[in-house]
Design a protein that fits this description.
By secondary structure, the chain is mainly beta. The protein is built from one helix and twelve strands. The strands form three sheets. The chain has a four-stranded antiparallel β-sheet, with no helix packed on it. Strands 5-6-7-8 form a four-stranded antiparallel β-sheet, with no helix packed on it. The longest helix has 10 residues.
């Protein structure tokens, strides 16, 4: 049962579970065969305010659940036990007006997570899922409304940009 609107849902890679995120900050995991709620993940609730969850999902191997919301953070949980593993926050401490995490996507092997935020941050960030470390950030002029990671067979698409490669590609096109 939900007290507020459901904002997002996603299937696990094996189709056995569904994760849902709501406007009251709650993230729930459900069993698809029975519809039974398995557990409630630590909600996005700083203080007494509800923080809307904008996107939820599973890692490609199904081991992690990720939720991103209006608090500007991504949270990673163990998908089997529902234990919080990490809170990824690229905003400086004390910043009042964080950009909402609007979306995210894993790379194909699940080792990296790409996130997109809205105003005032308007950025892409790449995170290492094993450590929770931010690898790099790319600033954008507008909110990042949608992202996806596509493997084109040209190396890891979430690796930091290599200035030497960019310079070589520029020379090739002149």
């Amino acid at each position: 049962r939900f007290l507020r609107d459901v904002e997002c849902v996603a299937f696990s890679p094996d189709g056995q579970r569904v994760v849902s995120g709501a406007s009251d900050g709650e993230i729930k995991v459900w069993e698809t065969a029975t519809g039974m709620e398995l557990f409630l993940l630590q909600p996005h609730l700083p203080g007494l305010y509800y923080i809307r969850v904008n996107q939820v999902g599973f890692s490609p191997d199904g081991r992690l659940i990720v939720g991103g919301g209006d608090d500007g953070q991504l949270r990673l949980w163990n998908a089997e036990k529902g234990e919080l593993i990490a809170t990824l926050d690229g905003q400086p401490d004390g910043l009042r007006n964080k950009g909402s995490v609007l979306n995210f996507a894993f790379n194909t092997d699940g080792t990296r997570l790409l996130s997109g935020t809205g105003w005032p941050d308007n950025s892409f960030r790449v995170w290492e899922t094993a450590t929770g470390r931010e690898l790099f950030k790319l600033k954008y002029e507008k909110r990042v409304a949608g992202i996806d990671v596509i493997d084109l067979g040209m190396g890891n698409p979430t690796d930091p940009p290599d200035p030497m490669i960019s310079e070589k590609r520029s020379e090739e096109h002149t």
